[in-house]
């Protein structure tokens, strides 16, 4: 049996409280029938902004989405619990049932100057607290990121291949290039699941989904719309 692919919604710094509520209610309505009959076609996780974690967590627990949709965070502190003002530690997340932590997204590297060494520390924090890291890498930083993370941890990771020049453009990278980068990622990290992320939406997904080398998707823009995202995961 092949593993179900994983689709992760990354809302980034979008959505306020009422928009988050509306998304959840709409997504719940749109997926209800499918979950009651066949279940979802994919494993799904949602990564909201931190303030909405309790809301999303409670909502998932109290609806039919429970067991079908997991919770993810968009980042995690490289430090443990303690005197690190403003940082969200893995320990802070205890009790919210967080499954995944996206780490090293190109926006974190670019705007917050995170290095591959910082990201390696985040990986350790997540794993020590039972959270699976989704490590984002772009072309050219694959070996550097793999080397920064202790080898014994590689088998516990999910890696997301994210060609930054395609993020938010509506265009995906040519599938042949995606597959060759995935090969490079597997050579560096071992035989771990590799997601693709950059302009995946209900239209572009079709071209990628048939390839078993692609273990799933990280979805930004198209995940902001509950109807589009429901369409993608059903
Ligand atoms: P996008 O973002 O779907 O808007 O291209 C993807 C990402 O940044 O992971």
Low-confidence blocks of residues: none
Q: What kind of oligomer do you see?
A: single chain
Radius of gyration: 17 Å
Helix fraction, binned, reads 25-40%
Average residue-wise pLDDT: 96
Number of DSSP strands? 8
| Biggest beta sheet attributes | 8 strands, parallel, barrel
Strand arrangement, major sheet: 1-2-3-4-5-6-7-8
Strand coverage percent: 15-25%
Summarize this structure briefly.
With 234 residues, the protein is of the alpha/beta class. It contains eight helices and eight strands, in the order βαβαββααβαβαβαβα.
Secondary structure layout plus pairing:
Layout lengths: L5 E5 L6 H21 L5 E5 L5 H10 L6 E5 L24 E6 L2 H6 L4 H13 L3 E6 L4 H7 L9 E4 L13 H15 L4 E4 L7 H5 L6 E4 L6 H8 L1
Parallel strand pairs: 1-2, 1-8, 2-3, 3-4, 4-5, 5-6, 6-7, 7-8
Bound molecules: 2-phosphoglycolic acid.
The site of 2-phosphoglycolic acid has 13 residues, from β8.
């Amino acid at each position: 049996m092949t593993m179900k692919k994983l689709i992760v919604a990354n809302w980034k710094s979008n959505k306020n409280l009422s928009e988050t509520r509306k998304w959840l209610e709409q997504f719940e309505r749109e997926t209800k029938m499918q979950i009651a009959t066949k279940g979802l076609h994919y494993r799904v996780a949602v990564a909201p902004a931190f303030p909405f974690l309790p809301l999303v967590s409670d909502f998932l627990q109290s609806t039919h989405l429970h067991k079908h949709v997991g919770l993810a965070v968009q980042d995690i502190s490289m430090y443990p619990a303690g005197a690190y003002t403003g940082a969200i530690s893995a320990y802070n997340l205890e009790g919210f049932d967080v499954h995944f932590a996206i780490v090293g997204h190109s926006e974190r590297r670019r705007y917050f100057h995170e290095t591959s060494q910082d990201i390696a520390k985040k990986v350790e924090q997540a794993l020590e607290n039972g959270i699976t890291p989704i490590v984002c890498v772009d072309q050219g930083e694959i070996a550097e990121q793999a080397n920064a993370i202790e080898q014994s941890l590689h088998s516990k990771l999910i890696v997301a291949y994210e060609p930054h020049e395609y993020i938010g453009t509506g265009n995906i990278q040519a599938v042949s290039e995606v597959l060759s980068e995935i090969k490079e990622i597997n050579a560096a990290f071992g035989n771990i699941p590799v997601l693709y992320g950059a302009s995946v939406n209900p239209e572009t997904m079709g071209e990628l989904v048939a390839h078993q080398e692609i273990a799933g998707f990280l979805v930004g823009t198209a995940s902001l719309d509950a109807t589009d995202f429901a369409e993608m995961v059903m």
